[in-house]
Amino acid sequence: MSRTPGTGLQTGTNPRPNNVTLASRGLASSSNSNNGGGGGRLTTSVPPSANILPSAAGTEERLMVTVRIRPLSDSSETNCIQALPNRSCSLLFDDGTRNKPKKYNYDCVFGEASTQDEVYTVAVAPLVHDVLNGYNAAVFAYGATGSGKTHTMLGPHVRPVRATPGTNSSHATTAQTGETPTSPSEAMNIPEQSGAVVPSMVQPSSGLMIRAVADIFDYIDQHTGEEAKFRISLSYLEIYNELIRDLLNPGGPLELREDNRGNQSVAGLSEVSTASRAEVIQLLLKGNKARTVEPTAANQTSSRSHALLSITVQNLTPTGTKQGRLFMTDLAGSERARKTKNRGKRLQEGAHINRSLLALGNCINALAGGARYVNFRDSKLTRLLKEALSGRCKTVMIAHVSPETRHRDETKNTLVYADRANHITTRLQEPTILEVEEAAAAAREAFPVAHYQSLVAELRDEVGRLKMKMMTERPRSGAALQRQQQQKPEDQSPTEEQIKKAELKFLREQIVQTFKQQMKLRRRLLEADSHLLGLELDAERQHMVISHWQSRQGKLYDRLDEDDDEGMTPWRTRIGNTCKSFLPLPTGSDSEGCSALRSAWSELASIEKEVKRYRQIRTTTEHELEECRKKGVTLEDELPERISSDEERELLSLLCRVHELEADKVSLQAERMARQAELRRRDLQLLRAERQRRLCEDIISTQRRIIEEGKVEMPEDLRELYALYQQEIHASTYNSGMNTAAGGFPRDALYDAKLPPIFGQDRSIYSASSSSGSEWSATSPLPPVDSEGNVVNPDRAMGPPVGPRLPSITRLRNNYGSAQSSGSSDE
Ligand SMILES: Nc1ncnc2c1ncn2[C@@H]1O[C@H](COP(=O)(O)OP(=O)(O)OP(=O)(O)O)[C@@H](O)[C@H]1O
């Protein structure tokens, strides 16, 4: 139930402060003695050296719940809540009745004077360490509107105020200054110098997100070497009115998908890889700017959406890739319409926020009560937090409360909510270690969309750059115009003027030409990628064919070395070797297998050739694109010297428009391609599953023959498995039966009638004669075999096709009807 103390992340930037105490089941071992502190700050007893080891997989963990009390917004107000100075895991809450203030206990309570650093060190730093060790971790900020969630997660400096999509105002401004934060330095409250590198040091007011990023980079800086290389990527999304939006690449709503293992993923969400902390902070900033924030009566900078940041860290070692992911969630605040005085759109937003928080509350209740089934499906928020809450993740909840008496009701709700969450236990999974192959496969799967996304991001950057140019370089070209105007027309000979005009025309044409060329090259790149992807899937299909036939011949599948440069020769040899064993008697399935193998290997050889050719095309195209881009920039730089400001603006805006259209087009292509890739992948999965199913059928039939021939008594567990199997078949047909019987046929009667009996009356095991050479017998759990011991119909070797053998619905209805009228049951 507890995290194990030990050595941990030692970045030097976030030493555990001396004034932090954790509850005994919390993050680190600590005695309960306190050094005082009071004043609403945290008190301590943890030695500064007490760092944290990652927890062992499989251990039971309780979701860590902390409460942060924000300072009074107005000193004339009275407090209804207080952190206990000597017991930093408890607080006293006055509920306004005559009763004594009630004490609540949590893993940690951060008082009004607590600092961002304290919150980070206690609640998040240990998670960051776990993430670097391959675990998934999550931290989410919960609380009523205005209680300080965003302050904790982002800090006060990256607080944008932005109109919701569809309204007129469009620029983000910081809450405090009213200006747009434009750089990482500003986000971190660092005076910006031109060209200055963003320091690793975080500022006292920096929020948890920036601190986590800095910590991860500090660790990586210290540990990168021959044996360990790291890859960081992040995605940032918001859920606004139950719609998911990408904050790093804002656009239309994105679709939430679920795979067959119940994992959730957002289709088309940008996952940006980066190697620089400044870039990450820049991305965070960009994301925060794009977030939907509105002033409400309760909070001037109220977040109207839930924001989810995900930072993935891959540690690439020679033996495999350790992958950990940190989810950081800033939830929108729960609110009461009466108090917030919201109307119209704000009211509708509030309803969505409350509904998703209610769904989250229901999940927390169910999890805390130990329910076996938890309904995560009620909202997108709960679907996305499923992993964080259901135990595959280490999770910390930071509940936020306002201390003012007027917020008493909301504060109480939050405390109760947090108290329930305190009872959630989870079982940690093994750290995620992707084997080299698996990592490559994952990269391959992610490949098409990721590439399109980076292309769209590139185009949008280009648009941004051109727009900046329109704003900043106008004075220069204006000066050029002035010079032109000052120049008397009589000073210029008509030929000179004509030459100038012709030069200008030529320059403009060249610029347009270069841009056209860039588009063409980009398209060629995408086509190459798409073709390569198709080739990879084709290759995979051929590998499956080969492994299928080779395994039939009792050979292990001998996969070709990917780096084999000799091209087709070794494959040909292999075809020869593989088929040699069949050659004496190439009949029936042997010859079929041989020719299938031959054609699969030769297909593979041509696929491999084609892959090499397209890779080469890709590299050349990339190179050409880079050259073309450089040429475009040089030509653009010449423009201001030659043309007037208006002409330049017109041309630049035309180029912007072209880029924007291209970006939109690529986005659509990306979406289409992602869907196609997903369908192809599923096809392959189905194919693979079908093949495995057939193999299982073969195995079971053979085993069944052995059992029948040897008159072996069937072991109890095998019998149970057959029973389960029968039920499975029944379950699948039962559903379709229900559909057919939608005309109001009683459920129980149908169920009983459809369930095929597995054993005889006395539950004795089957007798060989009961099934041998016969149709499937209802008393036998096994498929029929003929007198030779062969399964009668291999397609039915896994059991009876339950549907056809069952009484028709009409017959059931008739039976049921007559049973009703005679007042007796068939049973
Ligand atoms: N620990 C703190 N120290 C100083 N000021 C704080 C603290 N917590 C919150 N505040 C201030 O309180 C105000 C409301 O905080 P914030 O916007 O973070 O609340 P919120 O819970 O995110 O609200 P919403 O759910 O409406 O978005 C802000 O002006 C913020 O700067």
UniProtKB/TrEMBL annotation:
GO terms for molecular function: ATP binding; microtubule binding; microtubule motor activity. Residues 62-424 form the Kinesin motor domain. It comes from the Eukaryota. Keywords: ATP-binding, Coiled coil, Cytoplasm, Cytoskeleton, Microtubule, Motor protein, Nucleotide-binding. SMART domains: KISc (SM00129). Residues 1-57, 160-189, 473-497, 769-827 are annotated as: Disordered. This is Kinesin motor domain-containing protein. It comes from Anopheles minimus.
